[in-house]
Write a structure and sequence with these properties.
alpha+beta; 2 domains; 3 helices; 12 strands; YcnI-like_sf; YcnI-copper_dom; transmembrane; membrane; signal
Amino acid sequence: MRSTTTRTRRNLTVGLIGGAVLALAIPAMASAHVSVSPDELVAGDHGVLTFSFAHGCDNSPTTSLKVTMPEGLASVAPTMDSDWTIDIEKGDDGLVSAVTYTAVAPVPTDLRGAVSMSVGLDEDTPETLAFPVIQTCVEGSTEWTQLAEDGEDPHSLDAPAPVVSVAAAAADGHGEHDSSTTPETAADETDTPDALGTALGAGGLVAGIAALIVSVLAYRRKV
């Protein structure tokens, strides 16, 4: 009787731990990406883009981010930051083609890192601007360069590139800005876990509860 009770308690513990691990680990994997905020600008306008990340390469601290510029930008000016050194590459046309931000100290996987730059758009800038990013870590690297095909969900990609949508300028030369969107709310939206990660986390929790129920029923049958 005593050995049966001990075995049942061990099963209960394993079930609870397993569910907790799934609930915490799965959302972390699902939300790992490099994001850009804001994700929409207006043709012919200027804006400050912030590229943020919260995970390294397989849990290795991040040492640098290389952001490649798409065609359609009239100007690029990286933001000075004491946490990063900045290297600028230019093309034959004199425009910035890539910016590499190197961390003064590697960014741990449990901390959020961010770099930013000011960009200017032409009147004929394409409707979407993709910014391929190479995230280099102490061990390994991740190339965030995948682009969704027409009708494909970007969240289904393993390593999607940050993408900014470009709205057409209004008749007066300025786009329609949503007054309800501020830098603070944009940052909050960037840090909010996506629906997929939340759903997977809930699934992990359910798995843990199911294991608990099975163990309890097994215990009652033996008692």
